[in-house]
TrEMBL record:
Its EC number is 3.5.4.4. Zn(2+) binds at residues 12, 14, 197, 278. The record marks 221 as: Important for catalytic activity. The keyword Manganese does not apply. Belongs to the metallo-dependent hydrolases superfamily. Adenosine and AMP deaminases family. Adenosine deaminase subfamily. The keyword Hydrolase applies. Binds 1 zinc ion per subunit. Its cofactor is Zn(2+). It comes from Peribacillus huizhouensis. This is Adenosine deaminase. It comes from the Bacteria. Keywords: Hydrolase, Metal-binding, Nucleotide metabolism, Zinc. CDD domains: ADA.
Length: 330
């Protein structure tokens, strides 16, 4: 099975984890931004988490450098364009990009301007390549509830214009869903779809609460439902879709190695799984690499691939017309 020629869909990709190292250097030189080096290999190392990462928190440290060069309209537009351009080369036909707008206000940009800049970059790529994209707004769990409300309110005007969903991300603590119930409830009233990072570290009950308290339609990662029967049951019974990111999960020690990843067992048991990169640069990966890893590791078939692709079509937050188009590719 030649995976390179097959169409792909990516539902879980962070903008600030997917910068080209060359772009980081170029922007830093042009704008006089202090970075550790202007050597390409050195910056590549600075941006990439080792496979021997000790934890999710160590992995997340790799996002500090990218954010230094993501503080202007021009740069956000360029970086968004380049992400979709790179994905199009892998035969990705549709992707949902997520980012936390409040991380890009350090030089005074308004949140609405930040969101529009990313949407503009994505539209530039759509105009040049056979790819379609939508945007997910992430609220940082390390920030206050008021900040989450701010993202929900500022993003509201872009619903139906490229913004499709709300997300909670960053370091995962037990019980975080209870803290953010109110802003997520408001987001749903406005028309945002809901995907929540949960069960990425060893806390399966967070997945349960993400579904029950926040109404999550999709879960980012969800690895640890394997250790929580109630969470496993609700995900399976309600057909909540898991956005799984194999390389990232090995790096953050959600699993020890690819062989131990539960994606294949979940898939065979009728849980809807999808394959994603999480962060292309931080994890030194792309969609072709992630698909190859999983399909080779578990000797999966073309039928498995088609089912996972169709899971992604059904789970994506695109309009019906786009979904019908994506089905035709396979």
């Amino acid at each position: 099975m030649k995976l390179s020629v097959l169409p792909k869909i990516e539902l879980h990709c962070h903008l600030d984890g997917s910068l080209r190292p060359e772009t980081v250097i170029d922007i830093a030189k042009r704008e006089g931004i202090s970075i550790p080096s202007f050597d390409l290999e050195e910056i590549q190392r600075e941006l990439t988490a080792p496979i021997e990462c000790e934890s999710l928190d160590e992995y997340l440290k790799k996002f500090a450098l990218p954010n230094l060069v993501m503080q202007s309209q021009e740069n956000l537009r360029r970086i968004s364009f380049e992400l979709l351009e790179d994905a199009a080369q892998e035969n990705v036909k549709y992707m949902e990009v997520r980012f936390a707008p409040l991380l890009h206000t350090k030089k005074g940009l308004d949140v609405e301007v930040i969101i529009q800049s990313v949407l503009d970059g994505m539209k530039d790529a759509e105009d040049q390549y056979d790819i379609k994209g939508n945007l997910i707004l992430s609220c940082m769990r390390t920030m206050s509830v008021d900040h989450a409300f701010e993202v929900v309110e500022k993003g509201k005007k872009f619903l139906g214009k490229g913004v499709v969903a709300i997300d909670l991300c960053a370091s995962e603590e037990e019980g975080f869903c209870r803290i953010f119930e109110a802003p997520i409830r408001l987001a749903k009233e406005y028309g945002y779809r809901v995907t929540i990072h949960a069960g990425e570290t060893g806390i399966g009950t967070n997945v349960l609460e993400a579904v029950k308290l926040l109404g999550a339609e999709r879960i980012g990662h969800g690895v640890f439902i394997k250790d929580c029967d109630e969470a496993y049951h609700i995900v399976k019974e309600q057909q909540v879709v898991l956005e799984m990111c194999p390389t990232s999960n090995v790096q953050t020690k959600a699993v020890n190695n690819f062989r131990e990843h539960p994606i294949y067992n979940f898939h065979k048991d009728g849980i809807k799984v999808t394959i994603n990169t999480d962060n292309r640069t931080v994890s030194a990966t792309n969609m072709l690499n992630e698909c190859n890893l999983i399909f080779n590791e578990f000797n999966m078939s073309l039928e498995d691939y088609k089912q996972i692709y169709l899971n992604s079509v059904e789970a994506c937050f695109a309009e019906l017309e786009t979904k019908e188009m994506l089905k035709k590719y396979i």
